[in-house]
């Protein structure tokens, strides 16, 4: 790797054989043209971003890219535009600009931009290179790492997509300065998730340092993002295409998706729903006899401290509605719902063997 | 592999590590439920076919699949439906039928059906299994093997797609009985291609046996398909994603694509255009001093014997029009057109170093 080492930067690698790639985390990365260019080919570069992020960071990034043609496609902002129609626009733009197979796509933005740019890279001329430059906390610790790409379909979220790895993930922590508070807290949900599912020591650190994170202390953020990406990278390296262990990354997500679907994705940000879902999953892990009361309490307190919701939206009709939506989850295998639960803090497992009545009763208590 | 071995069947393997898969070639495969089922999971099976092939073979295949739900999607027939709108319909149907990640898609038809089904498999819920059951000669020897999947875009053919390998390719030579003569001859173009680019012995066999092939002699067909798939499998195994040697499979195709584009894909079948393109490429290889007059003549005679066209469509305006369309080919690298040429029968190579005036003159002689 031909980049400057800065003492104030942290990095790690996602180990996937010939698809391995680095994650670099630090302040001021967007301005470091040497770093940015080290991950771009010598051919065309094409940035995909959205109308919110473009005015903030596009020019800065284009300067570092140093390509006079400054190719870019600016998407409207929002999950409702994460669909095949938007993909068609990206393809058309790539073709109009005569981008060849040697083009490198650059995803500048949050999860929606990253997922769509990655899917464009996976499918344009049967696959071109791309790098992730995530600008939201959620994208920095979750969606930009691991190669899940895709779009929504009227019949379901993320139903169309591919596993396709970026060439690098460049996380400039400075971009979090412009992130709205609610989105920032939503990102913290995924950070907490890593502590809960695979890193008890990190969870203890989060319990002690949540106020520093909420105040966006730069050093705390960099540490938390690095630790989160490390957990995710380890799980992804062990199971790239989610045939096994990777499912633990969905801790809290089956509950979250059900609430999101029931509320037509209008009520909560994804991270908020995940925060709520993790609370229910923690409680159910406890009531099912896997997790001690003390561990459940500690996990719940960290979630509360991040300012995440602890009750379902009022519009939810009842526990059965959530259960119904859980039944059509992607994690359903051979007709059986599988849940990610904790047997200890930092220790998650997947099971289809649980008490359905107890599950309903647990959900009931969070309505 | 848990299948019956029939003496009258030929098989080979595409060696791609954990993505390796078998190709089985013989008569009556569609009726062999044990064989068919050995490549299907125990979950849902979903056949994609088209309105021409469905009345001929869908019921037969469904019987062998033995799945009472008989899920299928029937596309309209034609290259003009190979687009994202048709993909959207396949996705909708898969979701409507609640197909999970465990579904196996089955492509029953020609190249368009295979390319689209493969792309659906590559992108539905980030990738599900699929098998190829090609029913045209072209699909049997070319598009069903090698994992190229995708759709067209108004801006270019096959511009959206992925490399995604099937779990098996089942080639029932009986299906060729219903193939229209013109389509059959078009398929022969790709068969001849393998002789020209990598198998001199096979080319000699083709020179001696073309009349048997044209009469659809069963044994001759099975041999030719097996030999063709063997050549393709070897090249694909050496270069899955076309970063090098795989480009030789495009012998004749750069000329062919230019003619197809110039005539809006209305005039010739793809194989016919390839036959013509190979003729020009052979001649240009000879005039450039790579290929002997004798070898050029022998190659040209095999192409003629298959009944493939030897003059460009009358609507082509001139050599420059073909050259212009060649300049926007996917094989253009760093602004330079690269051609696949022969230095001997069975020996292809890729070069960007050729005499452009001589090329124009050569094309001129085929108008």
Brief rundown of the structure:
Two copies of one chain form a homodimer. By secondary structure, chain A is α/β, with parallel strands linked by helices.
Strand composition percent of chain A: 15-25%
Number of domains of chain A: 2
Characterize the main sheet of chain A. Answer: 7 strands, mixed
Number of DSSP strand runs of chain A: 11
Just give the CATH class of the largest domain in chain A.
Mainly Alpha
Can you give the mean pLDDT of chain A? 94
Sequence of secondary-structure elements of chain A: EEHEHEHEHEHEEEHHHHHHHEEH
What is the multimeric organization of the chains shown?
homodimer
Proper CATH architecture of the largest domain in chain A: Up-down Bundle
* Total number of helices of chain A: 13
- Compute the CA-based radius of gyration of chain A: 20 Å
Largest interface: A-B, 38 and 38 residues
**Helix fraction of chain A?**
40-55%
Structural class of chain A, by secondary structure, is alpha/beta
Rough outline of chain A: globular
Strand order of the largest sheet of chain A: 1-2-9-6-5-3-4
CATH topology of the largest domain in chain A: Dehydroquinate synthase-like, alpha domain
> Could you tell me how far the N terminus lies from the C terminus of chain A, measured between alpha carbons in angstroms?
51 Å
CATH homology superfamily name of the largest domain in chain A: Dehydroquinate synthase-like - alpha domain
């Amino acid at each position: 790797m031909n980049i400057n080492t800065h003492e104030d930067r942290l990095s790690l690698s996602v180990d996937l054989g010939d698809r391995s790639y680095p994650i670099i985390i630090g302040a001021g990365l967007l301005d470091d043209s040497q770093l940015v260019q080290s991950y771009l080919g010598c051919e065309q570069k094409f940035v995909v971003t959205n109308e919110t992020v473009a005015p903030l960071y596009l020019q800065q990034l284009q300067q570092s890219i140093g390509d006079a043609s400054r190719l870019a496609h600016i998407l409207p902002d929002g999950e409702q535009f994460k669909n095949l129609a938007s993909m068609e626009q990206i393809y058309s733009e790539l073709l109009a600009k005569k981008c060849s197979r040697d083009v490198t796509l650059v995803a500048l933005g949050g999860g929606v931009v990253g997922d769509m740019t990655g899917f464009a890279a996976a499918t344009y001329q049967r696959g071109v290179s791309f790098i992730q430059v995530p600008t939201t906390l959620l994208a920095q610790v979750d969606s930009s790492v691991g190669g899940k790409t895709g779009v929504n379909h009227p019949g379901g979220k993320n139903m169309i997509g591919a596993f396709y790895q970026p060439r690098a993930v460049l996380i400039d922590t400075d971009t979090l300065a412009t992130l709205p508070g609610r989105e920032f807290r939503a990102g913290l949900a995924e950070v907490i998730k890593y502590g809960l599912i695979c890193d008890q020591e990190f969870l203890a650190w989060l319990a002690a340092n949540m106020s520093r994170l909420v105040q966006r202390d730069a050093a705390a953020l960099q540490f938390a993002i690095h630790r989160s990406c490390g957990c995710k990278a380890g799980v992804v390296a062990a199971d790239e295409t989610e045939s096994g262990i990777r499912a633990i990354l969905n801790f809290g997500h089956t509950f979250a998706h059900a609430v999101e679907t029931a509320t037509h994705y209008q009520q909560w940000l994804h991270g908020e729903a995940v925060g709520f879902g993790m609370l229910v999953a923690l409680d159910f892990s406890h009531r099912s006899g896997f997790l001690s009361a003390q561990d459940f309490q500690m996990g719940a307190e960290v979630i509360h401290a991040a300012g995440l919701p602890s009750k379902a939206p009022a519009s939810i009709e009842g526990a059965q509605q959530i259960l119904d939506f859980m039944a059509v989850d992607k994690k359903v295998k051979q007709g059986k719902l599988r849940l990610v639960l904790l047997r200890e803090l930092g220790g998650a497992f997947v099971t289809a063997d649980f008490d359905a009545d107890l599950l309903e009763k647990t959900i009931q208590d969070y309505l």
